[in-house]
Amino acid sequence: MAIKVAILGYGTVGEGVYKGIQNHQEQLIEKLGDAVEVAGILVRDPLKKRDVQPGTFITTRFEEILAIPGLHAVFEAIVGKEPGYTYLSQCIEKGCHVITANKVLFAKYGNELLKKSKQHGVHIGYEATTAGAVPIIRTLQELLKVNRVTRIQGILNGTSNFILTEMRANRLSFGEALKLAQDNGYAEANPENDVEGKDAACKLKILCQLAFGCTPDWEEVEVEGIAAITSGEVQKAEAEGFRYKHIADIRAEGGKLKASVKPIAVSSAHPLFSVEGVDNAITLETSLAGNLTLQGAGAGKFPTASAMLEDFSAILEKSLRTKIHLLSARVPV
Amino acid sequence: MAIKVAILGYGTVGEGVYKGIQNHQEQLIEKLGDAVEVAGILVRDPLKKRDVQPGTFITTRFEEILAIPGLHAVFEAIVGKEPGYTYLSQCIEKGCHVITANKVLFAKYGNELLKKSKQHGVHIGYEATTAGAVPIIRTLQELLKVNRVTRIQGILNGTSNFILTEMRANRLSFGEALKLAQDNGYAEANPENDVEGKDAACKLKILCQLAFGCTPDWEEVEVEGIAAITSGEVQKAEAEGFRYKHIADIRAEGGKLKASVKPIAVSSAHPLFSVEGVDNAITLETSLAGNLTLQGAGAGKFPTASAMLEDFSAILEKSLRTKIHLLSARVPV
User: Fold this and answer.
1) CA A270 to centroid of chain Cα atoms
2) Directed axis angle between helix A12-23 and helix A25-32, to 10°?
3) Which domain holds residue A242?
4) Interchain contact, A309 vs B288, CB within 8 Å
5) Which of A134, A73, A45, A88 is nearest to B292 (CA)?
6) A200 and A54, same structural domain?
7) What confidence tens digit (pLDDT) does each residue in A277-330 have?
8) Å between A1 CA and nearest CA of chain B
9) Could you report the predicted ipTM of this complex, rounded to two decimals?
């Protein structure tokens, strides 16, 4: 019997998840034992033409998604806190696993949702909220359990990094580089969240909660974007061997957490010095492993879908394993 | 009751594991529910002074390690295929989990050991065999299950990378750079395995088996070290914007695996261009995530111990989870 999933929102990310599922059925069947069926897609405009298999159930009504019998998991790829939060809460209450790419929602309601998911015996995947395809969430959750993480530094906004790279490498002004980012589809029409550091701050919040189990007083955290950096400053830094990088930084110092999100001119000795273009990267300082850096695509259709589908596969395997243990243990009864 | 472990071999890595366990008891207790006790250490020279807690059981006889009652896991940090293979086989047969840093052994006998471990219901951790603290093995095993990995490129030998970096950045000759590596403790007195590419080839074999489930005909694989590279070639490449990197490469092409291990002059567009010094790094090409690069310490006392202790924690949690499920399921009986 196919594993039934639904996709909430069919923009770039939602479509990436849909196509990713279609193109990776072989892997999914091998890992999960069954094919994955997209049993419903929630959209805003029902009339828009979409490249989906004939007969795919498309609706504008969330209740109809929730009513799908035997729904295993929901991929949420909507923008903004609402209606995402309401939808995810209802899915969890119904016993449905949830995979989200919604960083604004998760930075705000992550703890509530995780608590609720425990109560209802389901899992939440949120790898896609932070640094696109880079598996930083699950590296922290699963691969670094003995190490103490003492500092996280990240380039968490691809648009800002693209702009800074263009200003340096091709001597563009901020305005020209921003326009190029928009022309390439990297930046939103309203680029405020990206270039003013809000997007990076949101992701840092998620990483901080995960790595340190608490957050600093965000009202006091310095959050500065890249909009005020001039071409002259970038050129001057380069002449001296430095590069401006927009770095989200959180570190444990003397029993307290210190955070900042701002552009910094780093030397070639800094682990994020050579991260260029739209890539994201994170350097973890740890007690045993030393510095670990993960780098990859910070956004985009398939990179974001990658994070969501890997979450999905891990969650399904986990819940499958539990069931097998329970079943096999019950055999003697 | 403490979780009992033994350490086979007490060189740099064995000592790193011992100290790592002592310094991370809090983390281990939190994750595993119990303290971890080093119940035995296998050494060659019983008289050598070692900085271990008074009363620690130290022996030169493997049988005495194997006879420790209730031994949960063994950390193997011996050099060479034997006696490591015999020891690990016996541990597995006894129902003991095994964590190894021995790449020569694992490249040769990995498949046999994995098969044997399945038969005996135990786990093998081998993260430390490849790229030190960089969690490439478990990233491939656990974080990339839906993605198809199509190519792996790695800087897998820190000594070679250090030498190439010094030849470029400080204009040393190969001989001078090698001597510096030896003075810094990076290179063995006999550096053949490192500078002739054998060490990197060994690690590539392990990655290849894991990622592709099979290996190319290794007799036909080009394995070339860095010993023949001249200072002049390095300078010429740099003047043209290139850097020599010793790259272990394996890719799926037309249904066949193609591998090579050799120095390549790469441009700044290559994801491994800026990996310098003793670091290791691996770039994975994948079907959904695109290019993912992981970078960190490729060797050393604590980085290697990090990989082994993270393996240990994951294995213990896994086997603990199975037991809890079985127990909780049996309650109604």
Assistant:
1) 24
2) 70
3) 136-297
4) yes
5) A134
6) no
7) 999 999 999 999 999 999 999 999 999 999 999 999 999 998 877 776 666 654
8) 19
9) 0.95
